[in-house]
């Protein structure tokens, strides 16, 4: 039974302890409690408070900031803490269905405490558990209960030493042997060893292993997931034929045991195949509801969107923590002043404000985006679970894939740069381990890499947009998507004719202004990228080369600008809803405008160049 | 007696071991040995080889990459290694005078091995030792010998808990007591504790302590340096009245013991005052060759330039290491390809090239700048040592101060961003501790903060330039400086009239083109900053507010652009010397152009905006 928080608002949102921040807090133009209630809602605040109170009161979660913990000790502690989280049972399955946002909220709370704990829990439940649930069938339901009781502990083994991004080149094999009705899982060589697998290093008993499926006398049916026991749950000793070990120290997240594994002709029962997208009959015939290998592959990796959305929300947590630390420090640290006698808080310096406040705004905008994208994902998964095979469901999957593929890069990079800026903005004190900025930076860093390298992922998003434009040019199709994130593109010729007409700085303080500029920018980048790509192809480049030659200067900024626009759009709509309390409208509007203008300003050179190509003001663009 | 390397060129520059990099190496358009000889010179290569060979053959320096070393063990090892470096006696005092570049070369070699070691050695010799030497007098020479024999071990205690950047607000006091002919060193409270002092945490026996000097019945004479024994060299126990301790774990450089100290009425002999800029007679009268407190203060902190120049060169080392690791990895790691069968090295992707190659060019350009600035510093110090009080010497000091104050920020930020890019460009493998990119990032990070926060320092450089322009506007003075870095500004009105006339991309591949654009940019920024500053003052802002309000949008880019221009200028001249071997001209020219264009491109928005303000092409600038 999960603990709960009793009492009214005072218990839920107690006053801050008195201290040097009082002076700034007293100057706020709004009530922070009202903002917290608007941002999270009372039910969510209560849920988070329950989790934090439990951790605060449990000695196993005692913090020792800046402690010099050995790798082994840290991993042991992290495992025990993960186990304890299951025992607390903060979130029932019914609760998950009723309030799906509590799932990322739980992960975020764990991430606030320690990224390694969030990752360990997430990998076992949402990555390993979800893979078993969504790729398996009835016969695998027995695993689900064992997962939630931590009777077994899992990991997700896709990446190999020599192949991460290029999943199609993965080389572990699974040959079916009809004589014994078993699959033989095998790693041909060390370069095909499963690598970087979180939880595999010390603690996982089971792995979802991706391997190329072969049946006798038939061609390869491509990558399929198998559930493979890799360790004895009692002794944690490796199973016969499995060579499994720990990757050693990493730049961060050292509470998480990343590992490698090689399989030497390991035999597993036929039922180990997670058979939703393809199965093998006892006699050895391959059967699949999907005709096309590519389509099958797409479905089997579809689950990666959920990983990316989780990472996005963990990156936001890191950014939130860092910016809170840096702003609080800046409000109390005094250095220099108008006279030698009077020193002022460093937060008063325009330089410090310019360095930090945009990241505060980014934390709010990205936090809202991460929640809204998670709800979109829930919609997709519900359609998937109910067997929806409509065109809309497929389109929704593609749209979420495109949003998550650029959302993870945007959030992880914003957090990474923000944390570094916070570290530097806190001067020497920011370099002390106990002040946590280093841990945040190191723990956030892999968010830029895993579940898809940021730069590689951005190509998914630009390809999605280019595909839509090609479809329009070729077939006259409209830009339409279930979440409407691309619908504005339908008007791209007229948007490209628009000019920026705002004359005063004050008028720019509405995010609608930046939003209009962003729409123009995305239309412009999309058209330019499309033209550049076609030009590359006309001049004889292969598809592969043409895309690579366009990515740096065109595809990458297109994907980022599109995603920034989506984040700005969603936050703009959110803070301009009629239900926003009047007392919060000003501050939320400012946060929205600040994030939008700051993000847009990074494209300033592009905007100027585009304007220049149009010619002097008054002339029309000749290239459109 | 220092070890030396025997044998000819083959021993000095042996072939690389054969391996997967051979294919790329075979494609080089130049001989790497020739490039190494041109960049370093044979004597320097030999010197570095001597150091590396000694470390390679000494078990005390055995590496355990990615090891999980405890804080205490790491500090102990680092101290022992530092001691061993003194025993090796790589660099005699005569050698230092004959080949001053061997000083930073030694520090760089130690930095290549481990930043903590370089910092520990540097702080003891060049920071503590130089402070005693240059701020003291004959009576302190006895310390110098003990420093080089490591009979005493030193640290430099300026920063306090509450004051780092604002050194004028430092509050430790030194009251002279004529009765006992002693100074009483005292920390009024914990906020005035000396803080962050490298070597102080565990190992220093002596500190140069900066304190406000008071004599009886007289006003305060400002900050002066005192040499104070803080620990017993035999037991390392604190001296009476000294509370000294370790700061604990940091984000990086954990081999270095940063510490804090409070002094409770600690009595030191009158001779402890490092008395070059001011002294107290036995009776208690303050005497100084400098009339003005400000001037005295300037001289006493003049030594900080040398710290900044050292940091600059250590940042370059970190960048060099990171880019070498990332490029080698990129040349061997294969992922995706034109067909499913054929994968290509990730270095072949334009994206990877755009991410990494500019940092390779930056490493070369900044390395050259760091050496040339060190030689300028040597000139300054020789003038100082020979008692040169000419106007040129003073001007040289100011110019080097301006160059070092922007050079440290430029180099430390370039390295920090470059290392992060390298980390990400190596994907998951870059996140493994043994691959060293994390250590490099963490160890480089404080370079952005210590010896002056980067953003605070940049103000020194913009103030220097603004002062020169004010002098010209007010008094008609010419822009002239001993190192000629500002001389071009004399022609600023005509430079501002120039237009960018290059028509082809090929023509831009000469760094002279970017150089001309940079000159225009610096003139433009200087004029704009000057106008903005005056406008702020006219509208009633105090000097303090006016400068702060100009810094983000004007002063900061001015300082950075000026320094980038200086780096580009020096590297351009270096690679276009007649003595450059013909076979190296192409590659060096490309490095120079790449660094220049890449740096300049970050100011693209500013260039477009400036052009726009001039009006459409053909029209003249009305505001000039």
From TrEMBL, chains A, B:
Gene3D superfamilies: Butyryl-CoA Dehydrogenase, subunit A, domain 2 (2.40.110.10), Butyryl-CoA Dehydrogenase, subunit A, domain 3 (1.20.140.10)
Annotated ranges, domain Acyl-CoA oxidase C-terminal: 511-610
UniProt key word Hydrolase: no
Cellular localisation: Peroxisome
Metabolic or biological pathway, per its Swiss-Prot or TrEMBL entry: Lipid metabolism; peroxisomal fatty acid beta-oxidation
GO cellular component: peroxisomal matrix
Ranges for domain Acyl-CoA oxidase/dehydrogenase middle: 155-264
Function statement: Oxidizes the CoA-esters of 2-methyl-branched fatty acids.
Acyl-CoA oxidase C-alpha1 domain location: 302-466
Family of the protein in this entry: Belongs to the acyl-CoA oxidase family.
Recorded superkingdom: Eukaryota
Single GO term (MF): fatty acid binding
One annotated GO biological process: lipid homeostasis
Catalytic activity, as annotated: hexadecanedioyl-CoA + O2 = (2E)-hexadecenedioyl-CoA + H2O2; tetracosanoyl-CoA + O2 = (2E)-tetracosenoyl-CoA + H2O2; hexadecanoyl-CoA + O2 = (2E)-hexadecenoyl-CoA + H2O2; a 2,3-saturated acyl-CoA + O2 = a (2E)-enoyl-CoA + H2O2
Catalytic residue list: 451
Keyword Signal applies: no
InterPro entries from the UniProt entry: ACO (IPR034171), ACOX_C_alpha1 (IPR055060), Acyl-CoA_Oxase/DH_mid-dom (IPR006091), Acyl-CoA_Oxase/DH_mid-dom_sf (IPR046373), Acyl-CoA_oxidase (IPR012258), Acyl-CoA_oxidase_C (IPR002655), AcylCo_DH-like_C (IPR036250), AcylCoA_DH/oxidase_NM_dom_sf (IPR009100)
Alphabetical keyword list: FAD, Fatty acid metabolism, Flavoprotein, Lipid metabolism, Oxidoreductase, Peroxisome
CDD domains attached to this UniProt entry: AXO
Cofactor needs: FAD
Name of the protein: Acyl-coenzyme A oxidase
């Amino acid at each position: 039974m999960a603990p709960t928080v009793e009492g009214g608002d005072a218990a839920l949102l107690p006053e801050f302890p008195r201290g040097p921040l009082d002076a700034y807090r007293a100057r706020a133009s709004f009530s922070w409690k009202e903002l917290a209630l608007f941002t999270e809602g009372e039910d969510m605040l209560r849920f988070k408070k329950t989790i934090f109170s439990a951790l605060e009161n449990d000695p196993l979660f005692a913090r020792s900031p800046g402690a010099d913990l050995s790798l082994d000790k840290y991993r042991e502690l992290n495992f025990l803490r993960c186990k304890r989280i299951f025992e607390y049972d903060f979130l029932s399955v019914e609760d998950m269905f009723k309030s799906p946002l509590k799932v990322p909220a739980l992960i975020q709370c764990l991430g606030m405490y320690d990224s390694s704990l969030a990752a360990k829990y997430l990998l076992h439940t949402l990555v390993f558990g979800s893979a078993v649930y969504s790729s398996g069938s009835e016969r695998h339901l027995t695993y689900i209960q064992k997962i939630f009781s931590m009777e077994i502990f899992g990991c997700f083994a896709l990446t190999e030493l020599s192949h991460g991004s290029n999943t199609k080149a993965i080389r572990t094999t699974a040959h079916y042997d009809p004589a014994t009705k078993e699959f033989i899982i095998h790693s041909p060589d060390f370069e095909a060893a499963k690598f970087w697998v979180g939880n595999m290093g010390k603690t996982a008993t089971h792995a979802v292993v991706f391997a190329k499926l072969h049946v006798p006398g038939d061609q390869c049916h491509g990558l399929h997931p198998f559930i493979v026991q890799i360790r004895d749950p009692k002794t944690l000793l490796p199973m016969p034929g499995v060579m499994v070990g720990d990757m050693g120290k990493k730049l961060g997240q050292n509470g998480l045991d990343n590992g490698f594994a090689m399989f030497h002709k390991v035999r597993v029962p036929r039922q180990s195949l997670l058979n939703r997208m393809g199965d093998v009959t006892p006699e050895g015939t391959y059967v699949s509801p999907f005709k096309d290998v590519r389509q099958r592959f797409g479905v089997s990796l579809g689950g990666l969107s959920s990983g990316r959305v989780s990472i996005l929300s963990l990156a936001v947590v890191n950014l939130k923590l860092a910016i809170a630390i840096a702003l609080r420090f800046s409000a109390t640290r005094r250095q220099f002043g108008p006279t030698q006698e009077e020193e002022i808080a460093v937060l008063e310096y325009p330089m410090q404000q310019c360095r930090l406040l945009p990241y505060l705004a980014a934390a709010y905008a990205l936090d809202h985006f991460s929640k809204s994208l998670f709800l979109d994902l829930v919609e997709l998964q519900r359609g998937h679970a109910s067997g929806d095979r409509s065109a809309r469901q497929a389109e929704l999957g593609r749209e979420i894939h495109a949003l998550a593929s650029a959302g993870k890069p945007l959030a992880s990079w914003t957090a990474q740069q923000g944390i570094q800026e916070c570290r530097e903005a806190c001067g020497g004190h920011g370099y002390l381990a106990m002040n946590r900025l280093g841990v945040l930076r190191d723990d956030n860093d892999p968010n830029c890499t895993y579940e898809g390298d940021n730069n590689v992922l951005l190509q998914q998003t630009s390809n999605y947009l280019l595909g839509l434009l090609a479809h329009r040019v070729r077939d006259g199709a409209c830009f339409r998507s279930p979440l409407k994130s691309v619908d504005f593109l339908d008007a791209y010729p007229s948007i490209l004719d628009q000019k920026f007409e705002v004359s005063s700085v004050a008028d720019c303080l509405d995010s609608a202004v930046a939003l209009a500029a962003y729409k123009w920018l995305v239309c412009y980048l999309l058209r330019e990228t499309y033209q550049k790509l076609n030009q590359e192809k006309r001049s004889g480049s292969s598809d592969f080369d043409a895309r690579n030659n366009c990515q740096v200067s065109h595809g990458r900024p297109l994907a980022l600008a599109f995603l920034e626009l989506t984040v700005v759009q969603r936050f703009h709509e959110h803070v301009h809803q009629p239900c926003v309390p009047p007392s919060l409208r000003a501050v939320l509007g400012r946060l929205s405008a600040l994030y939008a203008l700051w993000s847009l300003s990074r494209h300033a050179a592009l905007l100027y160049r585009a304007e220049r190509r149009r010619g002097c003001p008054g002339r029309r663009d000749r290239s459109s």
